[in-house]
Amino acid sequence: MGINIDKYLTRIIGNDFYQILEDNPSFQPEIELYLESLNTSKYKNIILLDYNGSVFTVIADGNIDFNNRLVFGENFKLNSLELKKLVQNKEPISFQQDIKGFWQTYLYPILDESGNLQAILSIDFSIKNFNRISQNLSILDTLFYIFTILLSIGVFIIIIFSFMDYKRELKLKLISLELSQEINKVQELNNSLEKKVELKVREIKRSQKYFETIFNTTRDAIAVIDSQTKFLFVNKAYLNLTQLTDRELKQTTLYNLTMEEDREHTINIVGEAFRRGFYHNLKSRYVTKDNNILEISNDIVAMPDSGASFLLVTRDMTFENRLRREKEFQEQKLLQQSRLAQMGEMISMIAHQWRQPLAAIGASSAKMRIKAHLNKNSNKLTIESTEKIDSLIQHLSQTINDFRNFFKPDKIKSNISYTEMIDSVFDIVTSTISAKNITITKSLNTDDKMNIYVSEVKQVILNLLKNAEDALLDNEIENPVIKIYTYRNKNMLILEVIDNAGGIPENIIDKIFDPYFSTKKEKNGTGLGLYMSKTIIEEHCGGQLSVCNTNNEEGKGAIFKISMHKA
């Protein structure tokens, strides 16, 4: 209670209570009325005292009994120990002050802004249950003053009701004041909320304009469709793509826009996208208003609502697909040119391999012919000669099969190991390379398989071996060596072709994979071998082809490294 009275007096009067009330006597009744209103069965004798350092002066007395009230400005000195403690510590204290022990006095210090004691609030309060005390007192009063109570009861009731009415009116005023303050707070809050709502609406409008600008200026065609693929919203790019007006587009569906051959696939994928909430890169074809066919790619994403609408982002892939097909066509032409160049080298190898078997066939045939002229042919000689000729013919036929299989185009990828491919390539090139006094060795340390286009990768290995052979011969290396080394590094399968031909000059090593770049132009080099090798390994098979120089025990040279993912 002391804190509430302190706040009330500070708000109504401010600081320097005594001086203000002395200057404004009209405030005194209001303050005493306020203190009087706080009297209850538990609290009574509420007095406000001013303290100037030595003397206490009455400011206001809230005693219900007007005859016993202290007069404003009445001075007196108090020497009680409790008051001295209060003045010294500036903390609230209480002490028993009636001999029956029913009441205690509570002293509450009121401090100014500087923390100095400017007034003391004195309140008497009951420390026992007031109803029980009232009953006991009533019994005692009845015994001593029964006749007096009977005579004065009527007057007492009137006074009580009058006081209750007065107190009710005072409370109504206080409630009205508090209600007015709360209404003001609610009004302020309402004004604040209106401003916040207004700012939020402006922010939403700015965001709406921002997204509308993005929606209508993006190069991608964007639309919102419902679960029946009917167009709900479209941007300008979609109108330009389909050559339809906004009204025409909203009257059709994605199904109707799609080319008839693609409709079944499209509707199945759209259904899957609706179930999953998204689908990426749905490829189909649109028929425009002018009957042009567009190759398009759709991304479908569920909108953040109940799943009833979906965002459709459409990209026109017609031009890109045309460029891709042209690029693939050019690559096929380059690959064919590279194959033709390799075929020339293969024919040279076959001719070299055939020379000795054909000579042996010719020798056997001549021997049989001479014996026949001399009439010295025998069954044994004929059988031996024909068996030898048959064996040589089978070897020649196998050479033809190897050549045909080597250049047979792959349509699907197959699982194969480096060991299998190298053995196949060695059957073709070993004799030719060895005939040129080049030592060729292999160290095969992995039989793990990879999923690749086998014939194309064989051509790459053959090309790397032929390049190493040419470099060794061109540089006239004294002890020429070609090494093939395979191994596994984590999930990658590695093949290295190593030579000791002196290495690749640093000023061209970054260019050797460029198309039409060749160091063998005087020998009619096409400059396509390494370019197509890199294209096959990296774009067709998803691997990597790289080169670096090395310096090993055989001398300086180059290392071409193929890296493939393990199947």
TrEMBL record:
Xref: SUPFAM superfamilies: ATPase domain of HSP90 chaperone/DNA topoisomerase II/histidine kinase, Homodimeric domain of signal transducing histidine kinase, PYP-like sensor domain (PAS domain)
Task: Please identify the protein, giving its name as recorded.
Answer: Putative two-component sensor histidine kinase
Q: What GO terms are given for molecular function?
A: ATP binding; phosphorelay sensor kinase activity
Task: Give the transmembrane region(s).
Answer: 143-164
Q: Where do the Histidine kinase domain residues begin and end?
A: 349-567
Which keywords belong to this entry?
ATP-binding, Coiled coil, Kinase, Membrane, Nucleotide-binding, Phosphoprotein, Transferase, Transmembrane, Transmembrane helix, Two-component regulatory system
Q: Which InterPro entries match?
A: HATPase_C_sf, HATPase_dom, His_kinase_dom, HisK_dim/P_dom, HisK_dim/P_sf, PAS, PAS-like_dom_sf, Sig_transdc_His_kin-like_C
Cite the CDD domains for this sequence: HisKA, PAS
List the coiled-coil residues: 176-203
Where in this chain does the record put each PAS domain? 207-277
